[in-house]
Specification:
Helix content is about 55%, strand content about 10%. By secondary structure, it is of the alpha/beta class. Strands 9, 10, 11, 12, 13, 14 and 15 form a seven-stranded mixed beta sheet that branches. The protein has a three-stranded mixed beta sheet with strand order 2-1-6. A three-stranded antiparallel beta sheet has the order 3-5-4. The longest helix is centred in the first third of the chain and has 31 residues.
């Protein structure tokens, strides 16, 4: 029977696609993103709610009001719902948002399809492979709607439901593959089930068992070790007796000698180094540290695994490395031996990316100093480094110039004997940089586990445009090196424009924007919105971008004025990247804003352990002690930092603050004077030479403050400057009357950044006055829950 009338058009209408698992996306029938909806989080959330559990489900208006506008009265809530539906209809095809009477709303199932509905359909039809391919992560990651507690509750319930369904599918797939004799495939499915719920010890045992049956004993034991360390660190307990017994059975069971497949069997002689050769058409600019053109031409390239260059090492063995029960790898700072400082970001970037890849391998604990310079005190004491971090192996890397290209050299170092085993050198270009990073990570894993199959490619390791990758590395060097947030932002913008699928670049953009918000370089509202959009874009591409989760946590804490409101997002950040010092750095900043000094110290100390060669965290720790009125502790930390980095301007400035807090004004003036002379500020150095005692110290501060105030006022005539920054400059200049008037105004306006004031250097002179303490107490933006 032929179809007639309206139904014919509806059935054959092209469909929109709504993606909600592991990312958020809405595309029209031609594959174009519907940006107008994606840019409005609340409208996006309403559309997602209407499309759940599948398009065509009718939802009562009263339920929508309770989920999204529970804080409003009935009339205002209904008006808000009507406005939201009207806006959605304006961005979507006619008829997609439909109503039934006055009480029910849904989306037309003939006009939109969702990955959630297809995922559930695959599970119901026992298409477990397809279902798990669709389940790319949690439902609507990083979507947060302010003042919609009902939506948050609904979202958590739906996330839990879908995650349980995916875990069930993974378990059933493992059973099916095991029944068919596919032990390797069964282990892979069991891995999905176990990683979805890391606290399910039964799932972990199932994974270990299947790995052992598939012949991968090393990975089975690595999974057990990782689980044992996690439950010890997070819960202060041990695995169950059943799990311990299983691990012991796997460890002691007799096994035949290791048989390498033909492609990786050890050669009879040392293999020739395998190189990826390239020509740089335009050279790097040696003085400015910038890259001119960076046009590269590959003359010969090969996408090769590193195993062929490592089989001699595997065959000879390295008991200290391979047989260690606890595998701690310290990634030493990559040394730039090119003689060109413009290559520093490539050196640190390679080490950082290799460390990130190694972090994703089960059974390894990584301590990365990839972004740090070698501290002079430990430069040659590799044994001390090994002892300090309990390392079983050190990864040492350098980059050098080799003809027209760059060359990466790497070696594994036994921290007990300091004996080095070189890995094959690799020449590279920007086009092959990602391959070199991946190959080096594979080589390290191969030498430790004696099996390169332990290396797994994550979503964040997908290949991106080579130039986008290079820009991203340079951006993170700017961002993490505290060099220039603006420069970092511009590099990340270029990287995302070059390749919009570069999740790490989007995460970097969110970090740069969040830093600019915190530093008051850009307006809070506009800056935080852009930072959230960048973070959400990163998480939509890869839900394991921990820095993006952390940035969302920081912004939520500021917006809600409640540090505890960010706890869930910080937990997600730690779960995504438990090895990331940036995550703990952000957590420390949130706790510092809430004036939880000791908890803030705990977080920054974790970051310091994860990034062991950087002295930056000592300065952060000292700053917290300054804020908490513990100058003696801060003094010790700052002096420790200046021993390893004597030219650190931030630490030197902090030292003068601490000495002033301790009323050691002449010492503070002496150090400040030397620093001013070293930086070429001859005018200030002259003022300081004529200063002495408490009055002289504060007179010099006011002199410097008046210059700061003049610069801030001049800038405000040209562009936006935050009122808080102007207020601080007024205090710094010694004009406390104007400062307090401005401060009272900001407190009356409820400025959300006022909680920073007790830590601000420009407030040191008045921070203990009764007037300041009264304002600060009434204006703390973050609660002290």
């Amino acid at each position: 029977m032929p179809l007639r009338g309206r139904n014919t058009a509806s059935i054959f209408a092209p469909m929109h696609t709504l993606r909600m698992l592991g990312g958020i996306g809405l595309t029209d029938p031609d594959g174009r993103e519907v940006d107008a909806v994606l840019r409005q989080p609340k409208r996006m959330a309403i559309l997602a709610y209407l499309a759940m559990p599948s398009p065509g489900t009718w939802h009562r208006r009263d339920a929508l009001l309770g989920v999204f506008w529970s804080e409003l009265d009935q009339a205002r809530a209904r008006t808000s719902l009507r406005n939201s539906l009207y806006t959605l209809r304006g961005h979507l095809p006619a008829g997609m948002i439909r109503t039934r009477g006055d009480d029910e709303v849904s989306v037309d199932p003939s006009m939109v399809t969702t990955d959630v509905a297809m995922f559930a359909g695959d599970v119901a039809a026992a298409r477990y492979d397809d279902a798990l391919a669709r389940y790319r992560g949690v439902l609507l990651p990083a979507l947060f709607i302010a003042e919609a507690a009902g939506f948050e509750r609904w979202l958590e319930e739906e996330r839990a439901r879908l995650k349980a369904l995916a875990k069930k599918a993974a378990g059933l797939l493992a059973e099916s593959r095991e029944d068919s004799g596919d032990a390797v495939g069964a282990a892979e499915a069991a891995e999905r089930a176990a990683t979805m719920d890391p606290d399910d010890e039964g799932a972990v045992r199932r994974w270990i068992t299947l790995l052992d049956r598939s012949g991968d004993r090393a990975q089975a034991l690595a999974i057990y070790e990782r689980f044992r360390i996690r439950v010890s660190e997070e819960f202060g307990s041990s695995p169950s007796a059943e799990t311990i017994a299983l691990a012991e059975l796997v460890r002691t069971r007799p096994t035949p000698p290791l048989q390498l497949p033909p492609a990786v069997r050890a050669p009879t002689a040392d293999p020739e180094p395998i190189a990826i050769v390239a020509t740089i058409v335009e050279p790097l600019a040696p003085r400015t540290g910038r890259v001119r053109g960076f046009r590269w031409m590959v003359t010969a390239a090969a996408s090769l695994t590193v195993i062929a260059g490592l089989t001699a090492l595997i065959a000879n063995g390295n008991p200290t490395v391979a047989d260690a029960a606890r595998r701690v790898v310290v990634v030493l700072p990559t040394e730039n031996q090119t003689g060109n400082p413009a290559q520093d970001y490539i050196a640190s970037g390679i080490g950082d990316e290799v460390g990130r890849r190694l972090q994703r391998i089960g059974g390894l604990t990584i301590r990365s100093g990839a972004r740090s310079e070698w501290p002079a005190t430990v430069r040659y004491d590799l044994k001390a480094i090994g002892r300090q971090f309990g390392s079983t192996v050190l990864l040492k890397t350098t980059i050098t110039v080799a003809g027209d290209s760059l060359e990466l050299r790497a070696a594994l170092v036994d921290p007990v004997s300091t004996v080095e085993r070189s890995l094959s050198s690799r020449r590279f270009t920007v086009e092959t940089l990602q391959d070199v990073e991946s190959q080096l990570a594979a080589g390290v894993a191969a030498s430790i586990f004696r099996n390169a199959s332990n290396v797994k490619r994550g979503a964040s390791e997908r290949a991106v445009d080579p130039e986008s990758h290079r820009l991203m590395l340079e951006g993170w060097t700017q961002q993490l090196g505290a060099k220039s947030n603006e420069k970092a932002k511009q590099l990340f913008l270029l990287a995302t424009a070059k390749d919009p699928s570069n999740a790490r670049a989007w995460a970097g953009l969110s970090s740069a924007l969040t830093a600019q918000v915190v530093n008051e370089s850009i307006p809070f509202d506009a800056g935080s919105e852009r930072a959230e959009l960048a973070a959400n874009r990163a998480l939509g591409l890869d839900s394991l971008q921990g820095s993006a989760w952390a940035n969302l946590a920081f912004l939520r804490a500021l917006k809600t004025r409640d540090a505890s409101a960010s706890a869930d997002l910080i937990r997600k950040a730690k779960s995504a990247e438990p090895w990331s010092p940036e995550v703990y750095l952000v957590e420390s900043a949130i706790l510092r804003l809430a004036h939880h000094w000791d908890q803030s110290l705990d977080a920054i100390r974790v970051a310091r352990q994860l990034d062991p060669f950087s002295s930056f965290y000592l300065e952060r720790e000292a700053t917290i002690d300054i804020c908490a009125d513990r100058p003696q502790k801060a003094l010790q930390l700052l002096r420790e930092e200046l021993l390893t980095t004597p030219n650190d301007g931030g630490a030197t400035f902090g030292l003068t603050r601490v000495l002033a807090q301790l009323h050691r004004y002449d010492e503070a003036i002496s150090i400040w004077s030397k620093d001013a002379a070293a930086t070429g500020d001859t005018v200030l150095a002259g003022v300081l030479r004529r200063s002495s005692g408490e009055q002289g110290y504060w007179d010099a501060r006011h002199f410097d403050g008046r210059r700061i105030l003049a610069a801030v006022r001049a800038k405000s005539a040209r562009t936006w400057v935050s009122e808080l920054k102007l207020t601080q400059a007024e205090f710094a200049s010694g004009d406390t009357l104007a400062g307090f008037l401005s401060l009272e105004k900001l407190a009356h306006q409820g400025d959300i950044t006022l909680s920073k004031l007790p830590c601000m250097p420009m407030m040191d002179e008045v921070r203990h006055s009764e007037h300041f303490e009264a304002i600060a107490k009434a204006a703390i933006a973050l609660s002290s829950k």
